[in-house]
Amino acid sequence: MQEDSAARPARSRSLDASGAEDIWEASRRAVSVLLEALPEAAPLVAELVEDCGEEISAGCIFGELAGITSTLLDGAPDEEDEERLERIFAAVETVATTPGVDAVELVAFSFLDGLSPGALVRAQPYLGPRTEELLERLTADELDLEQGDERA
Known about the structure:
Blueprint: H1 18-37, H2 42-52, H3 58-74, H4 79-96, H5 103-111, H6 117-122, H7 129-139
């Protein structure tokens, strides 16, 4: 799959260490996986890039996706919304289980923690096993953003 330039996160500072390059590579990988699993998110990514005037991080994209998901869950989802929610959570689960992606940062802190409290409760039936585990650890305050949870 050819990577769209909108899916590549920005480099807001010069990379002087291979660790920083690894972080951006993991961010690009997460966005690529998200877009492959949820192609309808491409306009969201493109809009965010246009609004910011540059490429953006995966965390920002997952935060925006959380806002959209909260809106769907906080309303009275119809059949079309239900299907959309299933696709969103399936894509998030795919990202959460992708090697080399920091699921703690993106799925737990950017997506799950970005859901409204009511949406978080209503999200339970949509959660995959890894996403559910991350939510349990997040609510138990067992996650540390600094340590990450990148799966090799």
